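Journal club prep, notes for RB
We'll compare a predicted complex against what the paper describes. Inputs for the NAP case:
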Amino acid sequence: MEYVQLGKTDLMVSRICFGCWQLSPAFWGDVAIDPWQDAVRAALDVGVNFIDTADAYGEGLAESELGQLLAADRLRDRFIVATKFYWRFTNGERFPDTTYGHIIDACEASLRRLKTDRIDLYQIHAFDPLTRPDDVAAALLELKRQGKIRWIGVSNLNPEQMRMYAKNFDVSCLQPPYSALNRAVEAEELPYCLSERIGVIVYSPLFRGLLTGKYKRDHVFTDSRARAPQFSGEKFHRVLDALDTLRPVAETYGLDLAQLAIRWVLTHPAVTSAIVGVKERRHIEGIVPAVGTPLSGDDWHRVARVLADAAR
Ligand SMILES: NC(=O)c1ccc[n+]([C@@H]2O[C@H](COP(=O)([O-])OP(=O)(O)OC[C@H]3O[C@@H](n4cnc5c(N)ncnc54)[C@H](OP(=O)(O)O)[C@@H]3O)[C@@H](O)[C@H]2O)c1
């Protein structure tokens, strides 16, 4: 495993981060807890020291399961724990809320569920158009002063939004979507983070599993992916065909397609770590060989071009 400094923080994070969104039944169905716990333990064995969750994942379920496991196995100090706030759940509905009071309450609730006294990286999950930056900053700086959070990150923000927050506090890290099938952040967000030395931890690097090439052409998704256009019909088949043509590229590096997709995001100089969504041990163990010598420029562009053509 390789470890790198997250932006300007004192956190040395593994280049693979364990993603906990999969404990969100509304999106992923019911994921079995025993294999998931086994995967968290396996992550440590393969050198993964970085784990990403959110209060919204399963409306607290992901944080609670993680907290119970870390406490029972005394693993808290072996992980750099990142979580997020933003959504307030009320009577079956959810609303963005980045007011002072909500941020303080949300942090206390996350600490309770995670059974810890500090969050290593506390992230704003998305941009709330009603956000008052002074309010957000006052809450986050107060939590930092109390030692309840160590570093502040953001997710799904553009450079203008990050610049606005950066006037009030250090934005240490951005969590954007990024993969060879979704390169939108290459234009502005990644250059901004590179020039400002902001860490970048990318989500959906496997495009929610699609880039693994493991699904058969007649695969029927039964979770939230069933509603996404890329996961059925002609679009799905075109990507699978493109992935078949990329298998030899993966093989020249001794990788499978999932590992190639992760090596591809890690080759971008702005990217600190790839957050991989995990349900079971083989997901996390299987992805670790992705960390290693970057792809050649030619291969990096070849992968991007083949997938862009398929997604057109
Ligand atoms: N900030 C945000 O707004 C945001 C949004 C989304 C995600 N995230 C974070 O990013 C993490 C990752 O994103 P993601 O879950 O969307 O997508 P992802 O990592 O691109 O894909 C996860 C899926 O890939 C498959 N997979 C994982 N490892 C594998 C391996 N080694 N071999 C074969 N298949 C493998 C599994 O699919 P199957 O289930 O089909 O087996 C898994 O459910 C999340 O868990 C969460 O922590 C953040």
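Talking point for the session: The first strand starts at residue 3 and ends at 5.
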